[in-house]
Amino acid sequence: MTTTDILLCALGAVAIGAALRVVTTRHLVRAGLWLVVALAAMAGCYLVLTAELVAWVQVLIYVGAVVVLLLFATMLTRAPIGPSDELDRARIPAALVGLGAGGGLAAVLIFGYRWTKVELSAPGTAAELGQEIFSGWVLPFEVLSVLLLAALVGAIVVSRSTRGSGHGLREGAKH
Amino acid sequence: MHPVIPYVIAALLFGIGVYGVLVRRNAVLVLMAVELMLNAVNLVLVTADATVRAYTGQTFALFVIVLAAAEIGVGLALVLQLFRLKGAIVLDDVAVDDVAAVDNPVDNLVDKPVDKS
């Protein structure tokens, strides 16, 4: 066990514990806050694994933007404050499938990699990653930018408040 | 560094995400579980990149993060629209063949021209 391994184990334990809280907590808002912990621990894992730029992008986009969006959505949809028992379906089948997926993948990876050891190289900087993206992956990069634009326009169109959906709101309030 | 450690962490996180997607009834919580699954995939990509230093894994991890941002934007817009229509975002209440909630969904999304006369 090297320092890297110990750091990865600790950060992984934090991430897995926080992720478990995200899917089991009975408080809606706390699920979002535990998600921050899980995502930050994952960013720490990326840092240890020498992916510096990915770690900071993770902090910026996930912890900074995605979680804030999720919390906004939680508030806008009148989430119950305090514990609520109606967040979950039957747990046993879902736990079986989740355990099957996680355990199966873990078994395959353990079988594939055993206890092999890899020497980490020097931390990757943004310059090298940018070189890689803009030399080998320019087309996917541009396609992604178009996709982002399309997703933004789509989100605006879908969430736009029109008279038609105002009608829907009155209908929904009657239930 | 033993690559099996981050790989196992990623596999377990993915399993937790699958459990969350299946067990949660609130649409926002389902989206959170999906984020966990996407992050597990990112961890696999970054670990693979660290074992074979080629920067391809990190590139794809960045792409996945961008895709997740797009997904969360559209997903939350849909969730808010669902809340407007139904007054709740409980996924069990959404029938797949439910067309009665709106008279004509397309008409409701498009602004009708205002009659000026």
Features:
heterodimer, A: 175 residues, mainly alpha, disordered C terminus, B: 117 residues, 4 helices, 69% helix, elongated
Can you give a write-up of this model?
The complex is a heterodimer of chains A (175) and B (117). Chain A has 175 residues and is an all-alpha fold. In chain A, 78% of the residues lie in helices and 0% in strands. Chain A is globular, with a radius of gyration of 21 Å. Chain B is mainly alpha-helical and 117 residues long. In chain B, 69% of the residues lie in helices and 0% in strands. Chain B has helices at 4-23, 27-51, 56-86, 105-109. In chain B, α2 packs antiparallel against α3.
Write down how many β-strands of chain B occur, each being a DSSP E stretch of 2 or more residues: 0
Sequence stretches where pLDDT stays below 50 over 5 or more residues of chain B: none
Number of strands of chain A: 0
End-to-end distance of chain B: 75 Å
Shape of chain A: globular
Report the order of strands and helices of chain B.
HHHH
Structural class of chain B: mainly alpha
Quick synopsis:
By secondary structure, chain A is mostly helical.
Write the layout of secondary structure elements.
The complex is a heterodimer of chains A (175) and B (117).
Chain A: H1 3-24, H2 28-48, H3 52-76, H4 91-113, H5 126-136, H6 138-159, H7 163-174
Helix pairs in contact in A: 1-2, 2-3
Chain B: H1 4-23, H2 27-51, H3 56-86, H4 105-109
Helix pairs in contact in B: 1-2, 2-3
